[in-house]
Amino acid sequence: MMILRLILVIAIASVALPSAIAQAFVTEKPNVIMIGVDDLNDWIGVLGGHPQAKTPNMDRLAKKGMLFTNAHCQSPVCNPSRASLMSGVYPETSGVYFLNPSFDQSPAATDHTMLPVRFQQEGYSTSAAGKLYHSGENKKYFDKYAGSFGGFGPSPSKKEGKLTSFKGVKLWDWGVYPNSDDMMPDYKIADWATSELKDKSEPFFMGVGFYRPHVPQYAPQKWFDLYPEAEVQLPEVISDDLKDISPYADALTRKVMVAPRHEWVEENNEWVPLVRSYLACVSFVDEQVGKVLDAIESSPHADNTYIVLFSDHGFHLGEKERWAKRSLWEDSTRVPLIIAGPGIEPGVSGKPVELIDLYPTLLELAGLSADERLEGQSLVPLLKNPSADWSHWARTSFGPGNISIRSEQYRYIRYKDGSEEFYDHSNDPHEWH
Questions:
Q1: Is 301 assigned a catalytic role?
Q2: Which terminal residue of the chain, N or C, has fewer Cβ atoms less than 10 Å from its own Cβ?
Q3: What CA–CA distance (Å, rounded) separates 379 from 354?
Q4: 281 has catalytic annotation
């Protein structure tokens, strides 16, 4: 009988349990809140991307958790980036490289379970508001989707027209609009999250997707007042930055674009207004992030909730003589990434990590079984020790055959035509040469 009991104890102990590292974090079905910020580059205080950026709320979250300073998206385009994050597979696997198709139209969709769906299968309630997926997929993959609350709005009436003289698509506009914060969709999304947290029963998986600083770069006047126009600093650039890249690379990033061309921006003296508008939008959305953080901290869930803050890709504001995203350079691939919650000590990691790593990371933090189909790596070792051995690099695709690889020190790019670029960040952090 004693032998039988011993065998039984050993058998129970050998059942698949979270790793020793993960056990330091796992609580009884911890909650998860994912906060997405659209088109946010490294212009937040703790990342130092712009010396004037005022983001006290994102900064305070970083001081409570792990800040990843070398995090990268899998595509510099909204739809494929978000599809990769939520599915756990690279664009090369899904075939989703651009704004279309959606992931559910990919052959890979039948073999992969979306991140919120997996948590729902594990007994979690799932809810979201705003932009987590790129389009109507939010309704499909969250049990409760509260809506976009106006999305990229509001915008001036047809009679009023655009605020600027740029004749491109309606979304590409910038300046002071509307009159008050409560007219902004992100304000309403933060209010939804605050209200939702009051009524939450555990366990829950919650998505909060903010739209700014995505164009149109509109924000009320008080956010522009933080950045007086005469004091706005422009990004560091050099002349003829693109003279040493291939014609293919230049055409890929600048031949077809809906954003204004850099030449137009300079000729029309719009560089300072554009930078100012972006900074104003970043500070506005930081305030909304702060409202969500306050609601979490004052809720019964404060000690049992993991918070993940991320952006879907970076954004150029004149660097590399271009605007918006859609490139394989640092300004476009690098994203803010912060993970905070039970068991995570404050820290900073410069290891190259990816948005695709979030899916396996959250599974491990929640004590759930791993999914071998996922192509990312759990970040739990780095959450335990930000300087841990890390043999992985970050990969970004921009269309089939165009690939960027980022290590701690280097960036290597290979384009479909075979041309290449190689940058050493130890002496060329702007990737000028």
A1: no
A2: N
A3: 9
A4: no
